[in-house]
């Protein structure tokens, strides 16, 4: 197999009338990467994905795949395949016919396309349900069929539009590990749109956080989580406190890096508002100087060695390395 | 007071059952009974004889009239389906905003603000020997003298049928199309289907129930019609409905009843055949 190509977005822009959904974003997806486009709803991540797929026209800029500008090619000619949010399986066709659909459109003969479809169903472990109709499948099974249907076109980039949002939480966790495994096996680029940071952290080699039509930050999952560049990223990734320091400046500090001391010894003074037992840890919500709400995650044993009550005055402190200054 | 669930169920079903029994089953039963009665020139008398059916099935007129009725039904079905599908397709897939869809759909229904008869008759001055169509064609130099077959012909009958009944195709087809998930169309496109392939592989199969409901409407209406055929053919063509209306005009009620029973059976058979092709229950 030839080395899969890189995907580049160059000043990619989408405008609907006067509103700009995607504002001149630039990004380089290395070949074979599992990338997550992460952001709240309306941030432009879906529009970006649909432009890469070719289901949305590009207002400005271009989508470059393997050195070729594919911005104006039809979806099937780009080397991309899309897996839709609700899977969009054809309800009147059997699982096999759904998977073989693109081959039928190309005019491949019945025997060959049934054989190829069977191979794909084997890959996603759905051979037993090959003759069923989509309505007779569970959500997870439908997703596998949708995957098989997308992969049979041998795409270089697979685009997944919130693929796990239709599943219940238990199945979601199982399917995401299957997605990751499949991506490793196939070695092709996956671009996965999601609004769940846990999903992105679990899956992605690279996370691209979007907000208000632009990319806020991108990078390896650990880098984005541990060193958020803006307060938006810090808040959206979760597990962080965005703290305004008394002498100016804004920093992000992970909740589990904050420890409690005497009121006078801490970097900030505060009063415990609520205490929540979380199993492995205890969350203390502290109202600190300047009416800031700060969460401190204290390991369970450490907390219960010296339990506190709501209303107690405490000092909050953290190490310098745990502190990341934020850009506006 | 607590009613037995069983009794409550029967009580709730009673009003509708009574209405149906009184206004549907009873009249049909009467027609079936009368179809076995005898008739003289001036009276009808109760009997149980098969004379009416014997006469009906023994007459070559019956067969030619039934064939003519089928011809009207099939040709009208074809044109209403073609036009109705196209209109519904345009409304459902090409008109993007819901407001426009509703507005254009209402425009389609405007002809229904006038009665059938008026819409029918309004074709006469248009199609007549010296009507608008002929005079326009002459003034354009397309023809030298008036075309005779425009009015009082099978052409005018079918034209009127198509005009009257296309909406009965548009509505159910549009309704079914609106339920097709738009992402299916995108998925087909993503899988390399051309517009035409999407139409034949996705849209038409998924629209079948709507097509079937519209077809039942149109076929039933055309097969039971008599006034359109009478007006628009200038009494030169006949269908089963006219056969019945002529019998009634001659006070031959038993004969009319027998023809009606045969027509009813025919229409039911046609619908049964149509229903074998498509399961419309999920649309209802």
From TrEMBL, chain A:
Keywords in alphabetical order: ATP-binding, Nucleotide-binding, Transport
Query: Which Pfam families would you find in this protein's record?
Result: ABC_tran, TOBE_2
Q: Which residues cross the membrane?
A: none
Domain named ABC transporter: which ranges? Answer: 7-237
Where does it sit, as one GO cellular component term? ATP-binding cassette (ABC) transporter complex
- The chain's coiled-coil residues are none
GO biological process terms, semicolon-separated: quaternary ammonium group transport
Show the InterPro entries listed in the entry: AAA+_ATPase, ABC_SmlMolc_Importer, ABC_transporter-like_ATP-bd, ABC_transporter-like_CS, Mo/tungstate-bd_C_term_dom, P-loop_NTPase, Transp-assoc_OB_typ2
* Alphabetized GO MF terms: ATP binding; ATP hydrolysis activity; transmembrane transporter activity
Database matches in PANTHER family? SPERMIDINE/PUTRESCINE IMPORT ATP-BINDING PROTEIN POTA, SPERMIDINE_PUTRESCINE IMPORT ATP-BINDING PROTEIN POTA
For this entry, the protein name equals ABC transporter ATP-binding protein
